[in-house]
Amino acid sequence: MTLADATLSGMRRLPLFFVLLTTLNCSGFRAADADGALSEASTKDVLDSSQDTQADTLPDTPAAPHDEPCLELWTESTGEGACAGRRVVEIAKGVLDSSDVAIAVTSENRRVVIAYQNYLWADEAKLHLTSFGVEPGAAITRRELEGLSVVRMGDAFDLAPSVAGDTVHLMRADLESSTNGEITYQSVDGETLQLGNASLLANDVSAKTKVGVFEANNGEIFGLYYNDLNGTIYWRRRIAADQGWSAATTVTGLSNVDGIGAGHFALARQHNGLPALVYTFTVSDGSQPRYLQFNGSDWAIPKTVDSVFGEAYGGYAATLAIIGTRRVVAHISLTEVFALRLAEWEGVDDVPKISVLDEGPVSDPERPAHDLALAKDNYGLLHLVLIDPGKHYPDTSSGSLDYWRQHTVDGATRWIRDVIMKDVANGMGRSWVDLQVDGGGKPHIAFYNGTTGQVLYVTRDDRL
After folding, report:
1. Is the sign of the CA dihedral 387, 118, 162, 201 positive or negative?
2. What is each CA distance from 120 to 126, 184, 334, in whole angstroms?
3. CA contacts within 13 A on the Cβ side of 138
4. What single string gives the DSSP state of each residue in 275-331?
5. What is the pTM of this model?
6. Any idea what DSSP says for residue 417?
7. C-alpha–C-alpha distance, residues 412 and 15, integer Å
8. What local confidence, expressed as pLDDT, does residue 147 receive?
9. Among 342, 345, 336, which Cα is nearest to 386's?
10. How big is the CA angle at 11 (ends 5 and 15), to the nearest 5 degrees?
11. CB atoms within 10 A of CB 297
12. What's the DSSP call for residue 195?
């Protein structure tokens, strides 16, 4: 059966209900190479031409399982050979628009929680939560969030798993108008989607606000948000569940609140369990990714990790992963072409090593439609998902959802790229993607397709 989203009517909250996950129909298709041409050797070419990267040197890092490219679209895969175990599941359809998508997988029972937004019309939106097990055929629990006076629920939102148990943390911005909103935090039961008490973290925020939530290894909760009304990223912390939140304190500020990608940031876990972030620093004539890490009481001085001033707009959709002392930032730089760039370094004063993983055309550099997410596994390898609206196939409008991941060949770490889905960015609506990876290398991908109005869950069942 095909999964349908709950019927939306009025402002009434719909009850929870359960449906079965179903896998999309499959048939063969070959992945495309960097310039969009179809070839059975295309993924091999990408692998062989990729720059070797230094493998993580953490002690007791296990050997990664064998991996090879799937030369079919995952949405049309036969599920055989190198494409075994690929699974694409429709979570919702008929979603008119969403400001983002987010995913978290709980640490105890491995419940997948996905959040997405659905606009009823231009000035009203609701936030949807779904929960299900990682196994094929698991039932979905759904919940729709709405407010009494809030018109646009979840105009910005983020999910993060707790370090233990089946709790997920939800942070969101709800708007009464484009210039008047508030930011709240709530815990979410990963199975029932029952919400904990709401904490108000900020008010007087606008439609351009961004939010992020994080639980440290010691159980402290961090809530971060960007307020475009003054171009500042703030942070608050809750040390324990029975205590209140610290006062809002500045993390850093921007020079140009109207710059491309202004306000974007992404969080990651340091080896000591504390948060770090990468953000898009914008000035009047450019942008670049900058890195900050929390030192236990405050945030360190920002570090520029890839300076592209005067050459391109950099830091767009920047994302971060940390493996031991090795820090990796992936981001998009924009000129007449886009480039998927990686910046890697270890010591605070080290100069980052820069590499270009992919590049392609950009229809409008001032209105980019790319999205990006980066994560790591316990093998010291990186996983990356990319919405590339510039990829063109012979039988599609434009755009692809790509899944990149590292593997080892004769001791060298190299990249493989699979194409999950085509025709994801034809200008009808923005598409969004988010990623979490289990220690065994199993990816959990949440994807909102702005072209088809679908919310999809993507994974591979040949990984634990």
Report:
1. positive
2. 8, 22, 33
3. 20
4. EEEEEEEEETTEEEEEEEEB-SSSBPPPEES---TTT-EEEEEEEEEEETTEEEEEE
5. 0.86
6. E
7. 52
8. 60
9. 342
10. 50
11. 6
12. B
Per the CB < 8 A criterion, the answer to whether 355 and 305 are in contact is no
Question: Measured between alpha carbons, how far is 119 from 99 in angstroms, rounded to an integer?
Answer: 9
Those residues whose C-beta lies under 8 Å from the C-beta of residue 164, and which sit 6 or more positions away, are 107, 108
**Distance from chain centroid for Cα 349:** 28
pLDDT digits (tens, 9 = 90+) for 108-139: 999 999 999 988 776 678 899 999 999 999 99
DSSP SS3 for 43:
helix
Strand-pair category, 18-20 with 443-449: unpaired
**SS3 call for 335:** coil
- 162-186 tens-digit pLDDT: 999 999 999 999 888 777 889 999 9
The type of residue at 354 is: I
Fold exhibited by the domain 18-460: Neuraminidase (2.120.10)
- What one-character DSSP code corresponds to residue 122? T
Helix, strand, coil shares, percent, the chain, to 5:
5, 50, 45
What are the distances in angstroms from CA 25 to CA 78, 84, 89, 442, 451? 9, 14, 10, 21, 18
- What is the pLDDT, as a whole number, of residue 52? 38
Q: Which helix (H) or strand (E) holds 235?
A: strand 232-238
Backbone dihedral region for residue 155 (phi beyond 0: left; psi -120 to 50: alpha; all else: beta): alpha
- Token pair, residue 186, equals 């709530």
Dist. CA 72–CA 462, nearest whole Å: 16
**155 confidence band (pLDDT: 50, 70, 90):** confident
Domain range annotation of the chain: 18-460
194-199 long-range contacts, CB within 8 A, separation 24+: 195/145, 195/170, 199/238, 199/245
What's the confidence (pLDDT) of residue 284? Answer: 77
Query: Which own/partner contact pairs does 392-397 have at CB distance under 8 Å and 24+ positions apart?
Result: 392/36, 393/32, 393/36, 393/38, 393/422, 393/423, 394/38, 396/422, 396/423, 397/423, 397/426, 397/427, 397/451
| Of 21, 45, 38, the residue nearest 73 (C-alpha) | 38
Per DSSP, the residues of 50-101 read SPPBPPP--TTPPPPPP-----S-GGG----GGGTTEEEEEEE------S-E
332, 340 Cβ separation under 8 angstroms: yes
Q: Band the pLDDT of 411: cuts 50, 70, 90.
A: confident
The pair of structure tokens assigned to 200 is 């108000």
Q: How many residues does the chain have?
A: 464
